[in-house]
Amino acid sequence: MGAWGIHERSLYKYVPQSGDGTNQFAGKLFQAIEENANLSLTAEDFNWAVTLKPKIAMDVSVFVTSTTLKNVCVEETIDALEEAVDALSIQGDVMETTSYPTVASEPRETLVTQQMSLRKKDFTNTIRLKLFVGTYNVNGKSPTTSLSDWLSCDDEPPDMYAIGFQELYLSKEAYVFMDTPKEEEWLRTVLRGIHPKAKYRKVKLIRLVGIMLIVLVQERFAAYIRGVSVETVGTGFLGKMGNKGGVGVRFELHSTSVCIVNCHLAAQIKKCERRNQDYHDICTRMSFPPAKTIKDHDLVFWFGDLNYRLTGIEGLAAKNLLDTANYKDLIMFDQLREQQRIKRAFYGYQEGILNFQPTYKYDTGTDNWDSSEKNRAPAWTDRILWKADDVDQIVYRSHPSLRISDHKPVSSLFEIPIAAIDIVKYKKIYEEVMKHLDRLENDYLPQIAVSRTEIDFGTVRFLENKSNFLTISNTGQVPLQYKFINKLREENYSKPWLIIEPHTGFLMPGDYTEIQLEIYVDKRTAGKLSTGQDTLQDILVLHLEGGKDLFISVIGSYEPSCFGSSIGALVRLPQPIRDYSAEEVLILEKRHYHGEVDDWHENNRKSILAVPKEMWFLLDELTKQGTEKENLFELPGLGAEISVIRDILDTSMPDNLPGSIHSVGEALLVFLDALPEPVIPVRMYAEAMEASSTYLDVKKVVARLPGLHRRVFHHLVAFLRELLVHSLKNKLEARSLAAIFGSVLLRDGLHHHKITTAAYYQSEEKKKADFLLHFLTAPHWDWIE
């Protein structure tokens, strides 16, 4: 089904109709938002609401306080008012926030939504609004001058702003802890620099370390914004460090859905493949409730420091072309355009003509190209792209007069189409749709055909996704809604290692769709597969609204890997894990899981290894090649190289490991993060967190670790301390290493960071870092028992 139909439900919540108490309330409510946007309101201003429902005791002060609406964030105002609608529960027509006024059931509601989406053009009028998009990598600097030359350079004010920053803060510690004091100072500078001819409200501000996105809208449009939500995706080490990644805001304006993404992709001219990987990671992992992705929107704007460079041309030759403003010939060497052409990244996105000087790299405070020792070639690293129909780009430009950073800011002014509902037309078509569905439901039953009912994925490996496809066809005479549903006593419609996209959909008679099923075993699922607590087998229930259920069998064979296996099992496998049968490994894992194998004792040192040999090979390679390497454990590796490293460790006893030293470093962290039982066991997590403030207490915790785990901990601490001996050359800091490794050595086993508060998450991460930091900074003679 079309993207518009997926996210239109909230549009139909409030449909004013004469004589209907519910809709009188909704109409007055939103009329009040519009007409009183600039006024100071009190509870008395909403006394009219009580007259609509006299039998309910209402405290209308929940709607507003003495604070003026213009000082309230838009989505907070709307959310409060929608909660008030729910609370009223007006007699007669009950209007829930997720229901149509006259629809009794959710399946019928979904069908109506889809039918209405097909006729959207018949009941909407298109209005054209101006959107200003700006991006600026500020290189960790504080604002020292006005931003008006960038943000209010046009004669007339835009209707909306989407303003993105990168490198707001460059502290290595902030990459993990996400804190920065600069958010507020840059926000204040933005609000002082926007166009003075209009009044704006903040729709949302979202930040991931130094990547910040601010969305503003003119006050006159604030009442028409719904469904605001945000998401962040870190693409640094382990997919969570925030030095690189993206932030997104999505919302509906009238009946048009908008998604805005600001990102900072991997740096360095040779890291083009890593930039592509960052892009795909953001596409895959950025999801807005309920289950909306970036592509599921009418208008998408993606911008930021994409970091694509010029290749195939020397820096001097590039500067010579720039001296004559020969941008057309220079753009032929642009990595981004080439990656789009070969469909490796940003395929389907549009960009305007680059008719301005490259925005990187300058000597800070000047308009001179980089004169440092590295003498970087110029590049258009800062870009603005979009994916949508009927969007007009009015201007695309840089702003060289701002010299705060080694980048120049970029902006683009767009004219975008927004679909506004015509209430009279909507009511008429809504009635037609309801009558049509009534007739179809009385005459026909939905029918569906699937291409197969058993899907075999074959051999599946750790961190290696495998996909299959299932075709669903509507062979009946009526539109139908399908979805995969939960089985009895199960929380999800599929096991956690299986991804189904889309898991629900809508088909007109004669239509068909392809469903992608993807198996991906990661740290969350490998442990249970390795220990026999789970298998790659599942039965999916494909539910047809108003029809029968179909059952789809999914099977696969998980090939054990040292990644995802336990410390106790690995130290008892002297040969590579693939030299053993899956059954042998499973038996050993089960025995270890149930406590049936001996731990580390003096009398059995010959029968088991001191530490997993795979960890030793990784540490050995890092010691030989990485002790003096800058940015170790700060620049991420390549997924393809990490997969090769995994296969070599699973199949051989290597003298050297392939790939970049950054890929070897990330492989070590992935290995530790995937241990079913972390180095500090889950049962000791709370004790470790409580002890993290003092060295004496954390030493006591480590002394009580199981013998094998204590041995692994000591090996890792010795390696990290060795890295710090070379800190003058590798630029590593004890605090940043403690933060990175603390997050994988200490885990609570719940994987619930998304549902905890940001403050709680930050507090836990700092305690983990503090726990390990004691051992990295203790005197040499004192850190080992």
From TrEMBL:
The keyword Hydrolase applies. Residues 603-784 form the Rho-GAP domain. It is an enzyme of class 3 (hydrolase). The keyword Secreted does not apply. It comes from the Eukaryota. InterPro entries: Endo/exonu/phosph_ase_sf, Ig-like_fold, IP5, IPPc, OCRL-1_2_ASH, OCRL1/INPP5B_INPP5c, Rho_GTPase_activation_prot, RhoGAP_dom. Pfam families: Exo_endo_phos2, OCRL-like_ASH, RhoGAP. It is found in: Cytoplasmic vesicle, Phagosome membrane; Early endosome membrane. GO terms for molecular function: inositol phosphate phosphatase activity; phosphatidylinositol-4,5-bisphosphate 5-phosphatase activity. One of its GO terms (cellular component) is phagocytic vesicle membrane. One of its GO terms (biological process) is signal transduction. Its main location: membrane. Keywords: Cytoplasmic vesicle, Endosome, Hydrolase, Lipid metabolism, Membrane. Its EC number is 3.1.3.36. Belongs to the inositol 1,4,5-trisphosphate 5-phosphatase type II family. This is phosphoinositide 5-phosphatase.
